[in-house]
Design a protein that fits this description.
heterodimer, A: about 220 residues, mainly alpha, MetI-like fold, about 80% helix, about 0% strand, B: about 220 residues, flat
């Protein structure tokens, strides 16, 4: 089967529709993962042991099970108990929750990496707990985390094709529907691969820059 | 009341396929990891370039797209694969690319003095690698290999989309036949989690076994 440029030109607009949804899902998922991750990281540091334990186990469970099954769970099981979500919303929640458990570890490491002396100095300066977090710990903890967080957002971007399994019309699903309509798999699937490779290579460059700019931290 | 025992047998069959895929994928990933990881450290530019291209390509595109490429596009190029072969190929090559970076990092983390000691003992490059560097580096790699194996286990759920009857696929079958979503999906989430726990437990005990007698040597 030969590569057909006319066919490529014909299907490109459809694929670009899919690209938009892919990017939208990645952005929303990243925001949700950043928030969920911070929530989990803080909950695991909670003085209440029961809360810390429970959140720790739930996070461990989410990290140990496949994203695809979690997506199915959100999309097919939740309607049974009366929560009916549109595919894209279910997908974003799945991505955000799954990667939130990973970003939680990044937050944890970032917070732990702030030297003890900083906590003690804050106490010596008579800062309250809130002031210590907002003025001392968080400003020092965030910059080294940025490359690691970006790394997970790129990983999430590469997982978005899974959303096609719960009928989100993102790039992979558009490619599959095009392929099924014309019964030509070569061009659509290759284009999807090329698209992901291109974005990943660009993001590698971006990541290197972020690391130089912010990170002393090892990837 | 539905005959759950029969359906549970179906899910267990799926679990066997998932385990089989994970094992075979891990073996391929391990081989690729050492080939590409050591390739990146080679003296020869061509080998380094080849290994880097492999790693960047498979880390840069998503497993989902690679799987579809292997299953739908390779036959058009004259390479017919069964779903199982396509699954093992995509999983092994994908995770192998990630693990290759682990191999490279671990080998580079071994101190200079070990390399110098090899030269002092008149060991060849291969001998030094085989008898001095790799045994030490392998211990550094093990924990991350464990994580990679869990990633591989989770990625196997994707093969259900190319009609391979793994856990996720069987859960969909049960869902279609019984109309119940909660039970099959909760069951497979638990099975995946238990398998992930087994892997991390196995790797940890392997690590303990291999670290025996190395106390004080490791930094």
């Amino acid at each position: 089967m030969d590569w057909d440029w006319d066919f490529v030109r014909q299907i490109l607009p459809t694929l670009i529709q899919g690209v938009k949804i892919t990017i939208l899902a990645t952005l929303l998922g990243s925001v949700l993962a950043a928030i969920v991750g911070l929530g989990i990281a803080l909950a695991r540091r909670s003085p209440n042991k029961a809360v810390a334990r429970t959140v720790g186990w739930v996070a461990e469970f989410i990290r140990g099970t496949p994203l695809l099954v979690q997506l199915y769970f959100i999309f097919y099981v939740l309607p049974d108990i009366g929560i009916l979500l549109p595919p894209l919303v279910a997908g974003v929640i799945g991505l955000g929750l799954h990667y939130g458990t990973y970003t939680a570890e990044v937050y944890r490491a970032g917070i732990d990496n702030v030297p003890r002396g900083q906590w003690e100095a804050a106490k010596a300066c008579n800062l309250s707990a809130r002031q210590t977090w907002t003025h001392i710990i968080i400003p020092q903890a965030i910059p080294p985390m940025i490359p690691a967080l970006a790394n997970y957002f790129i990983a999430m971007f590469k997982e978005t094709p899974l959303l096609s399994a719960i009928t989100v019309l993102e790039l992979m699903n558009q490619a599959k529907s095009v392929a099924n309509t014309y019964y030509r798999y070569l061009e659509p699937i290759t284009l999807v691969g090329a698209f992901f490779l291109a974005i990943s290579l660009i993001s590698v460059v971006l990541l290197r820059w972020l690391e130089r700019r912010y990170g002393k931290i090892e990837r | 009341m539905t005959q759950w025992s029969g359906y549970f047998g179906l899910i267990l069959q799926g679990a066997l396929v998932t385990i089989e895929l994970t094992l075979m994928g891990s073996v391929l990933a391990l081989i690729m990891a050492f080939l590409a990881g050591l390739g990146r450290l080679s003296r020869f530019f061509a080998l380094r370039a080849l290994a880097t291209a492999y790693i960047e390509f498979f880390r840069g595109t998503s497993i989902f797209v690679q799987l579809f490429f292997a299953y739908f596009v390779l036959p058009l190029l004259g390479l017919e694969l069964t779903p199982l072969q396509a699954g093992v190929l995509a999983l092994g090559l994908n995770v192998g690319a990630y693990a290759a970076e682990v191999v490279r990092g671990a080998v580079q983390s071994i101190g200079r003095e070990q390399h110098e000691a090899c030269i002092a003992l008149n060991l060849g490059r291969w001998q030094g690698m085989r008898h001095v560097i790799l045994p030490q580096a392998f211990l550094v790699m093990l924990p991350t290999f464990g994580n990679n194996a869990i990633e591989l286990l989770k990625a196997t759920s994707v093969v259900s989309l190319i009609s391979l009857a793994d856990l996720t696929f069987q859960a969909q079958v049960v869902r279609a036949q019984t109309g119940n979503t909660m039970v099959p999906f909760t069951t497979i989430l638990l099975i995946y989690f238990i398998l992930a726990l087994l892997i991390s437990w196995g790797v940890r005990s392997l690590e303990r076994r291999m670290a025996r007698g190395l106390d004080g040597v490791r930094v």
